[in-house]
Amino acid sequence: MSGLQGTTLGRYQITERLGRGGMSEVYLAYDEQMHRHVAVKVVVNGQTEYIERFRREAEAIGRLTHDHILPAFDYGEQDMYHYLVMPYIEHGTLRDLIAQGPLPIEHVAELLEQIASALDFAHQQGIIHRDIKPSNILLRDDHYIYLADFGLAKVIEGGSDLTQFGSLLGTPEYMSPELSSGPATTSSDIYALGILVYQMVTGTVPFIGDTPLSVYWKQIQEVPTPPTEINPNIPYAIELVILTALEKDPALRYQTPLDLSTAFQRALAMPDDEALRTMGEPVYEALEEDFVD
């Protein structure tokens, strides 16, 4: 896609490119009617699968009005371009924040509550996100997030998977094991959210490999390193919450994003790490039952 700087799409004057990925590019633009800066995501016509994903994203966002879901202002087509207009969020992404190091547990709880609320709302509206990861969490500031990028979103009842044979749909570092043999579900979103929480408290994802396939094979076969082995400051009860979210069996995970967030909040009020360990295994098992209920 050639640069669009200096051109106009609809009423939007394109000023600079903010980023690119796959077949889309995101530009900073000026809305000449509303007199504000906006972000414009652009896809070139002719790429059938990407255009379908793009339309799906616009449709999904149109159904989701929530304080922590990035809204869409406009959608249009001009010449060879399809474009989606959204608020310009200039503070960066959760990925940028995590790059500075693990977040304090209280900060993780604050952000998780917002992400879980947005994701739970999407699920209630019948939409699975399918690409939960830090770069899709935009920051208005360090304490207020927007869930963004519904390009891979799927309506729970029906709809095409847009999956190419022999390829993975999503980001392997955040994909749940059961996607190897079945379609995405709300539980696969919850698994990805668990990976995100793991990354927020440790600064890294649990599974890393040389290729996307090798990473995903680890998702299926390997047990994640306990977060406390990476960051000893993580409370024992918080670790239990995270590992529950990352169970290989979807039935053993939390059943909704809000369940995960609530369990995390409750874990903050648990006795400190040493107190829990000295209480012994029966207490650990009781806590596990409490978190899953």
Q: Give the class from helix and strand content and strand pairing.
A: alpha+beta
N-end to C-end Cα span: 50 Å
Helix content: 25-40%
Instruction: Outline the biggest β-sheet.
Output: 6 strands, antiparallel
- Following the backbone from N to C, one meets helices and strands in this order, namely EEEEHEEHHEEEEHHHHHHH
Number of helices: 10
Mean pLDDT, nearest integer? 87
Low-confidence stretches: 158-167, 278-284
* Rg over CA atoms: 20 Å
Number of strands: 10
How would you sum up this structure, described in words?
With about 290 residues, the protein is of the alpha+beta class. It is built from ten helices and ten strands. The protein has helices spanning about 50-60, 95-100, 105-125, 185-200, 210-220, 225-230, 235-245, 255-270, 275-280, 280-290, and strands spanning about 10, 10-20, 25-30, 35-45, 75-80, 80-85, 125-130, 135-140, 145, 155. A six-stranded antiparallel sheet has the order 1-2-3-4-6-5. A two-stranded antiparallel ribbon has the order 7-10. A two-stranded antiparallel sheet has the order 8-9. α3 runs antiparallel to α4 and α7 (about 235-245) runs antiparallel to α8 (about 255-270). The chain starts with 7 loop residues before the first strand and ends with a helix.
